[in-house]
Amino acid sequence: MKAVLEVKNLKMYYDTQAGQVKAADNISFSLYEGESMGLVGESGCGKTSVSMSIMRLLPENARIISGNIFFGGKDIVKISNEDMNKVRWAGISMIFQAAMNSLNPVYRVGDQIIEAITTHEPNVTFEEARQRVASLYKLVGLDPERMDNYPHEYSGGMKQRAVIAMSLACNPKLIIADEPTTALDVIVQDTILRELEKIQKKLNMSMIYISHDIAVIAEVASKIAIMYAGKIVEMSDSITIFKRPAHPYTVGLMSSFPSIRGPKKELVTIPGEPPNLLNAPDHCRFAPRCPFATDECWKKEPSYEEIENNHFVACFHPQNLKKQVRNNVG
After folding, report:
1. How far apart are CA 210 and CA 14, in angstroms?
2. Structural domain range at position 272
3. Would you tell me the crossing angle of helices 109-120 and 126-139 to the nearest 10 degrees?
4. How many structural domains is the chain composed of?
5. How far apart are CA 313 and CA 226, in angstroms?
6. What ranges make up the beta strands (E) of the chain?
7. pTM for this structure?
8. Which residues contact 122 (CB under 8 A, 6 or more apart)?
9. pLDDT digits over 161-192, tens only?
C-alpha cells in the first residue's frame, strides 16, 4: 500500500519571549491511501501544531526546526510557499477548528466554495464550479438551493457540512479534520462523523481526525496515535489501542468516560497537569502523573518502540494497564 503522507522526526517549536515551546517534538507517522487516522490528546498536547505544520500554515513565531513531511513524493517542508499554495486544497485540505466561524459572513456560502475551486483550478468556469458545489452539497446532505444563503442563515450543523463540502471542493488526497464536531450536540456530532466516514470511503481519501475525545475518534479512525506533551506516546490500530493499551496515559483517556454497557464504575481521572513545554523535562513527561512510574522513569526519556506488530509505545513498562487502573479505582 502506498503512503500518502509520511511525517518523519518532525520538530516544530514556537519562539516566545520566555523561550522555545516544543509543541511538536520528534513526531513520526505514516498515512496510507484510504486510511483514516486519529490524533488524540488533551488540549495543548500539540495536535493542532502537527496539523498546521503539515499544512504549512504556521504563525510568524513558529518554526519547523527539523524533520520531513513527505506528500506525493515531495518533502513539503522544503518547497517554496508558492509551491505549497498548489498543494493546499488540491492535495491536502483542512476542516479547521471552530469551523462554524470560518465562513465569511458577508459572502454567500456557495460563492465561497466556488472561489476555492476557481482559485486552484483556473480553467474551471464559474458555472462548472457552481455545478460542482451543487453536487458537493448533495454529497454532504445539504440542499443545493441553500447555496445562495449567507452563513447566518445556516444552522450549526449546516455550517459544518458546508465547510466539509469546501474541503472536498478540489478533490484532495488528504483531509485533516481538526475537532470537526466541536460545539455540536451529540446527535448532530454523530451524524456529521458518520457522513465524513461515508464520504471518505466512497472517495477513497485519506483522513486525519484530531480530537481530545478518544471515544469519538474510535468511531471513525482505523488507526490512533495518542499525543502527550508534544510527543506521540502510543500508536496502533483502533482495536489494539482499546483492547491492549500499553501506555498509562492512553488508559487514563479511555477510563475517563462512562460506558453504556456493563456495571456502573467510578470514572478514572488523571491527576496533575501536563509539563510546561518551555522547559520540557529530560525524563518521561508523563511520570509526574503516572501511578506506575518508577525511578527509571524519572532518570531518562523512554524510547518509542514497537512492542508488537504495528503497536508502538514510549514507556519503560509497557503492558496491559487497563484492568490495573480500573482495579485501583474499584
Report:
1. 20
2. 246-330
3. 120
4. 1
5. 9
6. 3-16, 19-32, 36-40, 62-71, 74-75, 92-95, 174-178, 206-211, 223-228, 231-237, 304-308, 311-314
7. 0.89
8. none
9. 899 999 999 999 999 999 887 767 777 778 88
